[in-house]
Amino acid sequence: MNQDRPIVSIIMATCNRAHFIVEALKSIQAQTYIHWECLIIDDESTDATEEVLEPILKEDNRFRYCKRLPNYKKGLPGSRNYGLDLAIGDYIIFFDDDDVVHPLCLEVSLSAFKYIQNSSFCNFKKEAFSGNFNYDSIDSCNECNLEEAKDDLLENVITQKIPFASCTVLWKKECFKDHMFNEDLMYAEEWECYQRILSDKFKGVIIDKVLYFNRKHPNSNTDEFWRNAPLRVNSKKKAIELVVRNLYNKNLLTPYLFKYLVNLAISFRDYILVKNILILTNPNTRLKLFYKLKYYLYPIWLFYMKIIKHKP
Q: Can you tell me the distance from the alpha carbon of 36 to that of 33, in angstroms, rounded to the nearest whole number?
């Protein structure tokens, strides 16, 4: 399929997902909006990924298969950064190699940019599934509610009151001019990157519609994190410290965000992490003592909260 210069660049990092990736690409190919390119960045796959991709690459030249170059670190952030450097579209979106995209995703997302003048991003909802995806469950209506992202969006994204997943945001490419992914992170990299972008106060739109379906399976990064895989857990801890540093340096670390992030650090039972945050932010002596004490008493506090929760 031939086309003019793509308007949207889809970046899909992949590694050993030959059993999932074709379904993901077929859902991209089914988009009602057709002016896109999809950059498939292979991060050293050792399975049959290249072989299963061959037919679709021949059929549709909007897909480009690229192997991550060695000057980008192995991992999702490095692969995405390579994709960002290759992208030629005006808009950027990241899709994962094991998920399914709503056929109206790009059409609805692009139209949302007209809702607010000078919008730089739009965020939509996702829905999880396990096993085989039920295509009959897709809502074919393109109507949805839109609202301008409020001033407290940064706070709500950091505290995850508003989900801002890596694959549920369509960005103007300019947002990544000064904000690439941190290639030392192997989990929570989008949380850390996206809060940096939002801290520059770009305008955006929130779409109240499910336009993405993420597959739940035991080999996902998220599942590994919840199973306490050290690589993922240590990455989240590093991301917490980076978020604190960014907010502090930009005078955006409100008392509420400070409390949330310190408590999050305490929950990881890593005294060095808590200590580093307190050194960086230098709160008053009373707060320092309070959070150091809370760190040591945290197990007792958890036990107390469980009792309160189950109290009749």
A: 8
Contact 163, 125 (CB under 8 A): yes
Residue ranges per structural domain of the chain? 8-217, 224-310
Mean pLDDT score of the chain: 94
Amino acid at 93: I
Residues 269, 244, 147, 107, CA torsion sign: negative
How do residues 5-23 score in pLDDT, each as one tens digit?
A: 899 999 999 999 999 999 9
Exposure on the CB side of residue 153, measured as CA atoms within 13 A? 22
The single residue listed with the structure tokens 């993420």 is 214
d(CA 202, CA 199): 8
Q: Helix, strand or coil for residue 102?
A: coil
Reference 167, options 116, 203, 211; nearest CA is: 211
Kindly give the residue spans of alpha helices, DSSP state H, lying in the chain.
21-29, 49-59, 76-86, 105-112, 153-158, 189-198, 221-226, 230-249, 255-267, 271-281, 285-310
CATH code for the structural domain at 8-217? 3.90.550.10
Cβ atoms of 246 and 211 within 8 Å: the answer is no
How many residues does the structure list for the chain? 312
